[in-house]
Amino acid sequence: GCYVVGGMFKNNRYELYRCSLRKRHIKCSQHSYINKAEIDRQLGEQMKKLTINKMVYELLMENIRTRNEDERKIHLTGIDHWQRIEKHADERISRLLDALSEGMINKVEFLQKKNEITTQKYDAREKIKHHKGSVGAWHKYAENLIIKSSHIYEVFSEGDEADKKARQRGGLPC
């Protein structure tokens, strides 16, 4: 489509914007200039539609915390399970060494069984890493998204120009 272009007019006293009319075949209603205050007002009206009220905010945050706690319990159970498997593999290798040293199995049997157990131990370590990396991975992202969404309208309705510009760049911490 077209672009919104703007500039400073009349000795840099007025900041005005309008459609670039780049696409001549499109009927555009933005032929006339519009000032920054009007753009902020229109943007604020659109942001009202996206505003999360306090009750919804609290419900969403509580839901995220509950789900995160449920997920954390699942991952901790998984970590515990795979750590027991890893420990059991160590014990089996130790018993296997004892069997080899006592002549109960030969070296070929030892190496074959040891490779099987080592593979199981490696798989257990990988599962442990996965569970540790997954605990709460999405929680902070979702929480920050809700916090920022709840503050957007406040910035555009009550913030100063620096706040608005920072929010448009995504740099204003909430």
Characterize the structure shown:
The protein has helices at residues 36-50, 54-101, 107-134, 139-158, 161-169; strands at residues 4-9, 14-19, 34-35. It has 174 residues and is mainly alpha-helical. It has a three-stranded antiparallel β-sheet with strand order 1-2-3. Helix 1 (36-50) packs across helix 4 (139-158). It is elongated, with a radius of gyration of 31 Å.
List the helices and strands and how they pair.
Elements: E1 4-9, E2 14-19, E3 34-35, H1 36-50, H2 54-101, H3 107-134, H4 139-158, H5 161-169
Helix pairs in contact: 1-4, 2-3, 2-4
Task: Give a short summary of the structure.
The chain is built from 5 helices and 3 strands; from the N terminus they run E-E-E-H-H-H-H-H.
Q: How much is the radius of gyration in Å?
A: 31 Å
Fraction in helix: 55-70%
Mean pLDDT: 78
Show unreliable segments.
170-174
Terminal CA distance reads: 33 Å
Task: Report the total helices.
Answer: 5
Task: Report the strand count.
Answer: 3
Q: Which percent band covers the strand fraction?
A: 5-15%
Q: How would you describe the shape? A: elongated
Largest sheet: 3 strands, antiparallel
The secondary-structure element order is: EEEHHHHH
